[in-house]
Amino acid sequence: MKNPQRFEFVHKVFGASNVAKLVQQVAEDRRAEAVDCMVYEASLRVSNPVYGCAGMIYQLQEEIMKVQLGET
């Protein structure tokens, strides 16, 4: 994902000032990781406004259960 699109998603979901506040609270060496997490959550929230990241987690859990039960 290109940087402008990353910012657009994060800005739309969290707001620029909230992101700046959150990032400042994270240790400097972990900030890039925190931003990546916010981008991931925001992109999922844009594509699935109701469930966002939780929807993806549920979907992956369902896939794991199918694999464990041999239903693939």
From TrEMBL:
This is LOB domain-containing protein. Belongs to the LOB domain-containing protein family. Residues 1-72 form the LOB domain. The lineage of its organism: Eukaryota, Viridiplantae, Streptophyta, Embryophyta, Tracheophyta. It holds the Pfam family LOB. InterPro entries: LOB (IPR004883). It comes from Linum tenue.
